[in-house]
Amino acid sequence: MAAGEDSFDLIVIGAGPGGYVAAIRAAQLGFKTACVESRDTLGGTCLNVGCIPSKALLHSSELYELAASDFATFGIKATGLGVELSKMLGHKDKVVGDLTKGIEYLFKKNKVTWLKGRGAIAKPGAVKVTPAKGRAKTYEAKNILIATGSDVARLPGVEIDENRIVSSTGALSLPKVPKHLVVVGGGYIGLEMGSVWRRLGAKVTVVEFLDAVLPTMDGEAAKQMQRLLTKQGMEFRLGTKVLAAETSNRGVTLTVAPAKGGEQEEIKCDHVLVAIGRVPYTDGLGLKQAGVEMDDRGRVKIDGRFQTNVPGIYAIGDVIEGPMLAHLAEEEGIAAVEVMAGQAAHVNYDAIPGVVYTYPEAAAVGKTEEQLKQAGVAYTAGKFPFSANSRGRANDETDGFVKILADAKTDRILGVHIVGPDAGTLIAELALAIEFGASAEDVARTCHAHPTLNEAVKEAALAVAGRAIHI
User: Which residues lie below 8 Å from residue 407, measured CB to CB, with a gap of 6+?
Assistant: First the structure.
C-alpha cells in the first residue's frame, strides 16, 4: 500500500464509465486509489451528456409517439396530447443528477479519493492535478490509468457553437422543438438524437457521406434500419458531403454536394447536429512528455495487458484502439486493474454488444456477414422475423428480425444481428453464448419462455439448421 496522504497505488485520470468502474474495482482489490475528474460531477460524458440523458429523452419521446399514434390500436383513447419540453428536459436532468450522485456515494463507500481538477502525467509515477481555482498539486502513483474518453469529432467548414450548430451535447437541450433539424452523420448518435426530435415534431434530414447508414453494422441490418426510419418520416441524403455552414438568427444554411462530385446545393434548417463520430481525448495529458507512444490517430498504444510502453502507465476505453462503447470501457477498466493486482484478466472483443437505441432498436455482437465473407469463413445464417413471433404480434411490434451466423463446420456462433423490439436486451443472451463458445444448436435446444420476444432468438438458432418451427 502506498504511504502518505499524497501517494496512491493507483491514480485514474477520468471518471467516465471506464475510469470510475476501474477505480472502484481497484479499491475492492485493496489499492489505495484516487480518481481525477475536472467536471463538477462524476460519470464522464456518458452519464452527464451522453448515454444516460439521451436514453431518457428517447424513452420520453417514444412514450409520446406511442400515445399519439399507437394507443388506438389497443383500444386506448388519448386526447389533448401535448409536449411540455421543459418537463421532459427536467426529467432528463434529474436522472443524470441522481446517477452522478450515486457514483459519488460509491466512491465514498469504497474509499476512492476524488481529486477534483484536470489531470496530467507530470512524469512516470506522478500526476499533476490542476483545479479550476487554486494551485496545482502533484501526487505520487505506483500505477496510472488513462481513462479520459473521447471528444466530439469536428467537421471542417462547420463550426459548432452549441446554439444553431450543435454537438450531441447541445442536441440534448434544444430550447424548443425545431421545425427542421439536419443531422450530419448516420451513425448511432445521429440516428438516436434525430429520432428524439422527429418524434416530438421536427422534420429530420440525415446527411451521410457514405452510401449507407450505420456503416459498422451488418449490411442487411443497416438497410432494414434505414427502411424503418424512413417509414417513420426521417429523410436520408446518402453519399452527400457537407462543404460549409452559414448561421443567422433564423437558422442555418448548409452547402452540400454529392460525395463523388457534382453540383452544390443548399439546405436550410433551424439547427444542425454534427454527429460524425468521436476522437480520443488525449490533449494536455502529458503523454508525449512522459514518452507514451501514440498511433497516427492519436490513440494510446498498449500491449495485451493494457500497459503502455512506459511501465506503470496504462490506458483503456476511447483513448485506445477499438469500439468507443461505455460498457467496453468498463470491462477494460476492470481487466486493467486486475492485471495490476497480478490476476489473470482478459476482454473478449468478439463478445462486445453494440446497440442503437432508436425504435425499433438494432443490436449486434460478433462478426457481420461482410466480415466473414472478407475473411473467407464459411458460415450458415439463420433468420427469424418478429412478424412470426407471438409476443411481437400481441404487442404490435412486428418489425425486424433476429439473424444468427454460425460456423458452417462447427456450428459455433460467430455473430448475431437483431433489428426489433428490445433488441438491446435480447442481444445479451447471444453475447453470453459467444463468450462460452456456444453453438446455434445449444441456443436452439435451450427452452425459452412462451410467449416472449426471446423465442425469436430460439427460432433463428433453429433456422441455422433449416428447422425453424414457426415459419
Answer: 377, 378, 379, 380, 414
Specify the pLDDT at position 1: 67
Distance CA 367, CA 217 (A): 9
Cβ(90)–Cβ(99) under 8 Å? Answer: no
Helical segments of 173-279, H only = 188-199, 219-231
Same fold, 165-276 and 351-464: no
CATH of domain 351-464: 3.30.390.30
pTM score, whole prediction = 0.97
d(CA 345, CA 288) in angstroms, rounded, equals 28
Active site residues: 450
Q: In this predicted model, what pLDDT tens digit does every residue of 286-329 receive, in sequence order?
A: 999 999 999 999 999 999 999 999 999 999 999 999 999 999 99
Distances in Å between the alpha carbon of 147 and those of 15, 25, 138? Answer: 7, 14, 18
Domain 7-57+86-151+279-347 annotated CATH 3.50.50.60: yes
Q: Quick: pLDDT tens for 152-194.
A: 999 999 999 999 999 999 999 999 999 999 999 999 999 999 9
The distance from CA 329 to its chain's CA centroid, rounded to whole angstroms, is 11
What are the cell numbers at 210? 457514405
Specify the pairing of strand 113-116 against strand 33-37.
parallel
Q: Is the dihedral of CA 199, 228, 471, 404 positive or negative?
A: negative
How many Cα atoms sit within 13 Å of 95 on the Cβ side? 19
What angle (nearest 5°) sits at the alpha carbon of residue 270, between those of residues 81 and 242? 130
Q: What are the CA-CA distances from residue 183 to residues 22, 65, 204, 205, 349 (Å)?
A: 34, 20, 7, 6, 30
CATH number of 165-276: 3.50.50.60
**Whole-number pLDDT of residue 277:** 97
Answer yes or no: is pLDDT of 86 > 90.
Answer: yes
Region for residue 317 given its phi and psi (left: phi exceeds 0; alpha: psi -120 to 50; beta: otherwise): left
Pure H helices in 166-312:
168-171, 188-199, 219-231, 287-290
Sheet holding 271-274, edge to edge: 165-166, 271-274, 180-184, 203-207, 235-237
Crossing angle for the helix pair 188-199 and 219-231, nearest 10 degrees?
Answer: 20
Per-residue pLDDT of 116-158, as tens digits, reads 999 999 999 999 999 999 999 999 999 999 999 999 999 999 9
Beta-carbon-side half-sphere exposure of residue 380 (alpha carbons within 13 Å): 18
**CA–CA gap between residue 3 and residue 416 (Å, rounded):** 49
d(CA 423, CA 454): 10
> For residue 311, is the peptide bond before it cis, meaning its omega torsion is within 30 degrees of 0?
no
